[in-house]
């Protein structure tokens, strides 16, 4: 009985601390980390950057992983401009490069600069994707609630 109580507490703590939610993709997303995020979401200042890393396990080899980030404001999808240095996520795989190795954990370090012109928003879901440029398939996908000041 004590074992079940400990497991329930650990699951509750783990669920409460996760600020991200996986969305449909081919890779297994195992973790997302950022010092700017808490269980309630991420906070970024306009003109600043959201810096994070995520661990994922691809199911296939990918030669070019295109970074895409978007949100929905007033019913319209808004795509974030991605700095040229971050377009190809393969250039930011910690200790690895592309093609990715199926079944192996990869860590992607990324940064998103929020334009000064972006409106202030509170608790808006931001979608982060890595798309295989050759196939157009979504390799990695997750959302994070964000507040932009």
Automatic annotation (TrEMBL):
Location in the cell: Secreted
Gene3D superfamilies reported in the protein's UniProt record: 2.60.40.770
Superkingdom of source: Eukaryota
Signal sequence annotation: 1-18
Lineage: Eukaryota, Metazoa, Ecdysozoa, Arthropoda, Hexapoda
InterPro entries in alphabetical order: Ig_E-set, ML_dom
Cellular-component GO terms for this entry: extracellular region
One of the Pfam families matching this protein, by short name: E1_DerP2_DerF2
The keyword Membrane is assigned to this record: no
Name listed for the protein in its UniProt record: CLUMA_CG017685, isoform A
The entry's keywords: Secreted, Signal
Keyword Signal listed: yes
MD-2-related lipid-recognition domain residues: 20-146
Annotated family: Belongs to the NPC2 family.
PROSITE patterns tied to this protein: PROKAR_LIPOPROTEIN
């Amino acid at each position: 009985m004590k074992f079940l109580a400990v497991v329930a507490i650990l699951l509750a703590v783990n669920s409460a601390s996760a600020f991200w939610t996986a969305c449909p993709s081919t890779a297994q997303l195992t973790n997302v980390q950022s010092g700017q995020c808490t269980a309630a979401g991420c906070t970024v200042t306009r003109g600043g950057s959201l810096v994070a890393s995520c661990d994922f396990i691809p199911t296939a080899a990918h030669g070019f992983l295109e970074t895409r980030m978007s949100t929905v404001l007033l019913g319209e999808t808004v795509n974030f401009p991605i700095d040229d240095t971050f377009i190809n996520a393969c250039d930011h795989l910690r200790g690895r490069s592309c093609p990715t190795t199926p079944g192996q954990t990869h860590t992607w370090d990324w940064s998103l600069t929020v334009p000064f012109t972006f409106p202030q928003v509170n608790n808006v879901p931001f979608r982060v994707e890595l798309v295989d440029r050759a196939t157009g398939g979504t390799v990695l996908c997750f959302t994070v609630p964000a507040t932009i000041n």
